[in-house]
């Protein structure tokens, strides 16, 4: 099994969703919902009920006359069973 790097997304919206049982992670762009489900269940010992994926396209930036593009970011919004929590998000209030 490939190990997926789950980077927690800490923002105001992510904290708001974490209070409602939905946790946001940045994942590699090549992963799918099944891989994310298995990785979260293995890493945090919780039961995942739903996973939504969002791909945010990178912005086009310019430095003087050189055009560049930021990388695309894929976010996974993971919903847990009622009553379960991930303690990683609890201290970020």
Describe the fold and architecture.
The protein is an alpha+beta fold and 93 residues long. The chain has a single domain (7-83), classed as 2-Layer Sandwich (Alpha-Beta Plaits), CATH 3.30.70.330. Helix content is 20%, strand content 35%. It has helices at 12-18, 33-44; strands spanning 7-8, 22-27, 48-56, 60-63, 66-69, 73-80. It starts with 6 loop residues before the first strand and ends in a 13-residue tail after the last strand. The model has no long low-confidence stretch (mean pLDDT 90).
Integer-rounded radius of gyration: 15 Å
- What spatial order of strands do you see in the largest sheet? 1-2-6-3
Average of the residue pLDDT scores: 90
Outline type:
elongated
Instruction: Output the CATH homologous superfamily.
Output: RRM (RNA recognition motif) domain
- Cα-to-Cα separation, first versus last residue: 34 Å
SSE class: alpha+beta
The poorly predicted ranges are none
Helix content: 10-25%
Counting H and I runs of at least 4 residues, what is the number of helices? 2
Largest sheet: 4 strands, antiparallel
CATH class: Alpha Beta
Query: Based on the structure given, which CATH architecture is correct?
Result: 2-Layer Sandwich
- The total tally of domains equals 1
User: How many runs of DSSP E, i.e. beta strands?
Assistant: 6
Percent of residues in beta strands = 35-45%
CATH topology category name: Alpha-Beta Plaits
Helix and strand element order: EHEHEEEE
């Amino acid at each position: 099994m490939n190990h997926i790097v789950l980077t927690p997304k800490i923002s105001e919206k992510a904290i708001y969703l974490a209070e409602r049982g939905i946790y946001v992670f940045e994942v590699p762009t090549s992963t799918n919902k099944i891989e994310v489900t298995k990785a979260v269940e293995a890493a945090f010992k919780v039961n995942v009920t739903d996973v939504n994926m969002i791909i945010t396209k990178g912005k086009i930036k310019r430095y003087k006359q050189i055009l560049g593009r930021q990388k695309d970011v894929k976010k996974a919004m993971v919903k847990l069973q009622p009553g379960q929590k991930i303690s990683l998000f609890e201290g970020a209030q």
